[in-house]
Specification:
It is a single chain. The longest helix has 22 residues, at about 295-315. The N and C termini lie far apart (about 50 Å). β1 (about 30), α2 (about 40-55) and β2 (about 60-65) form a beta-alpha-beta unit. Strands 1, 2, 3, 4, 5, 6, 7, 8, 9 and 10 form a ten-stranded mixed beta sheet that branches. With about 325 residues, the chain is α/β, with parallel strands linked by helices. The protein folds into two domains: about 25-120 and about 245-315, D-Maltodextrin-Binding Protein, domain 2 (3-Layer(aba) Sandwich), CATH 3.40.190; about 120-220, Periplasmic binding protein-like II (D-Maltodextrin-Binding Protein, domain 2, 3-Layer(aba) Sandwich), CATH 3.40.190.10. α2 crosses α10, α4 (about 90-100) crosses α12 (about 295-315) and α7 (about 160-170) crosses α12 (about 295-315). The protein has helices at about 1-20, 40-55, 70-75, 90-100, 110, 135-145, 160-170, 185-195, 205-210, 260-275, 275-285, 295-315, and strands spanning about 30, 60-65, 85-90, 110-125, 150-155, 175-180, 200, 215-220, 245-255, 290.
């Protein structure tokens, strides 16, 4: 009987190897659950040219925006597990949404095959440039003397730009009022106009507006300073102990992807991220290259989910 099971396992392994050896022999569709032009799109475009060179096939980006990335996730979940449909997802789609949506149509670890984590994405804490503060400590003093009078904007209820300020409020005891928007663009517009005074946003957009003088960056949420904003201290440097909150970007496929195809894709991303030009360009955009292969990425997702579920619970955010 043991010999029989060993033979069956060997047959499956051989079949998987055969599939991987032939893969890929046609274009690959990469689904992004958000509109073109955002941070995920920027990350995808940085990697796909080199990924195409490694795999020898075109990678075509397909935007399936809606419901905080869940529309795109559903599209990928339902696709054939053959390696020709991939998804680029972020913290919100994979680890925040499971704690946020009461009727989420997918389960991260059940319905997807993790391929590779490619980057960690810190955020910057921003204020309106006319606010009379020059540091995070001064902002905290300003907000503490005006409880309920300081508003912060976000890209929507339950997203990372909502939860990070909630974590900041919890760590500092500040009372600020949340103003949710339909996306980061209108939130930025009102931050620049002074309708909201505070915001947390991913480094690429935050750094661009800071350098233009349209907003003022006070701190970054990573453990180390960020090369895109080298003069801006971390939140921990600013006096808030152990405050480190960083999002991630990663690639996934439908569940039950053959192991050989998973390994081939994961190694392709490893090769792309090992290229100095790609790493330097990613860093200049404010993201930190942070490759994890399939198994380690799965463990990372499993560890992140309860942390963000707790942040959602404390914020009180729930979506149907």
């Amino acid at each position: 009987m043991k010999a029989f099971h060993a033979a069956i396992a060997a047959l499956f392994a051989a079949a998987s190897f055969g599939v991987a050896a032939a893969y890929p022999d046609k274009p690959i569709r990469l689904v992004i659950g958000f509109p073109a032009g955002g941070p995920l799109d920027q990350h995808a475009r940085l990697l796909t040219e080199r990924l195409q060179a490694v795999l020898g096939q075109p990678v075509i980006i397909d935007y399936k925006a809606g419901a905080g990335g869940t529309v795109g996730a559903q599209d990928v979940m339902r696709a054939a597990p053959d390696g020709y449909t991939l998804m680029l997802a972020n913290t919100g789609v994979m680890v925040i949404n499971p704690g946020l949506y009461t009727k989420l149509p997918y389960q991260t670890l059940r319905d997807f095959t993790p391929i590779a984590r490619t980057a960690m994405q810190p955020l910057a804490l921003l204020v309106n440039p006319k606010l009379p503060v020059g540091s995070l400590k001064e902002f905290m003093d300003y907000a503490r003397t005006r409880p309920g009078q300081v508003n912060y904007g976000s890209a929507g209820n339950g997203g990372i730009s909502h939860l990070v300020p909630e974590m900041f409020k919890s760590a500092t005891g500040l009372f600020m009022v949340h103003i949710p928007y339909r996306g980061s663009a209108p939130a930025f517009t009102d931050l620049m106009g002074g309708q909201v005074q505070f915001m947390a946003e991913s480094i690429p957009q935050a750094a661009a507006y800071h350098k233009q003088g349209k907003v003022k960056a006070l701190a970054v949420t990573s453990r180390e300073r960020n090369p895109a904003l080298p003069e801006i201290p971390t939140v921990m440097e600013s006096g808030i102990k152990d405050f480190e909150v960083v999002g991630f970007y990663g690639f996934l496929a439908p569940a039950n992807l053959p192991r050989g195809v998973t390994a081939k894709l994961s190694d392709a991303f490893r090769q792309v991220l090992a290229q100095p030009e790609i790493r330097n360009r990613m860093i200049s955009q404010g993201a930190d290259p942070a490759f994890l292969g399939s198994d380690d990425f799965a463990k990372f997702l499993a560890a992140e989910m309860p942390r963000w579920a707790e942040a959602v619970r404390k914020s009180g955010a729930r979506l149907d």
